[in-house]
């Protein structure tokens, strides 16, 4: 249902990543063979350097186009909202609280210095599919706006859970959200 949006952004291959299991023994073996000073792996058969093309072949992610550069600098205010609040509200249709905790399980305010709490986003995403909690379930006959929201939520989940899984840091930069919640065609031009 959301695949047309992912195709516009040239990210249809990421749907295969969610089921990937990490082989900790393989990672440990590779870490032991990594030569930091030369940026290569040292194997019995010889040296091996991982290139951007290698990553593109393995992930099927596009590497041609403008490079993705994410800034943590504030983008400015739009009316009485920060630019990050305005971005989330205009695309997802949800008002993000600026101060205070949402509930007792949150240790941080949902919005902090141009970053959004992943915990808050995750809770909001879980409620998205529950009509009793104000959500709209995704169906084949859903309006395009609803499908687009689900596609955005999916991308945010993939970025935070697969590509940038910083478990110690519960925040995602509004710069990433600006890319993920922006124009699908413009996203397709990125590397």
TrEMBL record:
GO BP, sorted A to Z: meristem maintenance
Source organism per UniProt: Linum tenue
Identification of the protein by name: Aminotransferase-like plant mobile domain-containing protein
InterPro entries cross-referenced by the UniProt entry: AminoTfrase-like_pln_mobile, MAIN-like
Span of domain Aminotransferase-like plant mobile: 14-179
């Amino acid at each position: 249902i959301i695949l047309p949006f992912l195709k516009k952004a040239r990210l249809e291959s990421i749907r295969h990543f969610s089921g990937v299991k990490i082989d900790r023994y393989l990672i440990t073996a590779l870490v032991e063979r990594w030569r930091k000073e030369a940026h290569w792996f040292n194997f019995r058969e010889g040296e091996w350097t991982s290139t951007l093309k290698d990553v593109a072949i393995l992930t099927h992610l596009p590497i041609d186009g403008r490079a993705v550069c994410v800034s943590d600098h504030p983008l400015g205010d739009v009316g009485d909202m920060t630019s990050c609040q305005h971005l989330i509200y205009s695309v997802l249709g949800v008002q993000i609280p600026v101060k205070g905790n949402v509930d007792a399980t949150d240790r941080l305010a949902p919005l902090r210095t141009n970053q959004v709490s992943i915990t808050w986003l995750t809770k909001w995403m879980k409620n998205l599919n529950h009509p009793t909690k104000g959500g709209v379930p995704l169906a084949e006959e859903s309006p395009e706006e609803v499908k687009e929201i689900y596609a955005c939520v999916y991308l945010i989940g993939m970025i935070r859970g697969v590509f940038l899984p910083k478990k110690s840091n519960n925040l995602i930069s509004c710069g990433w959200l600006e890319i993920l919640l922006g124009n699908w065609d413009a996203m397709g031009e990125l590397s």
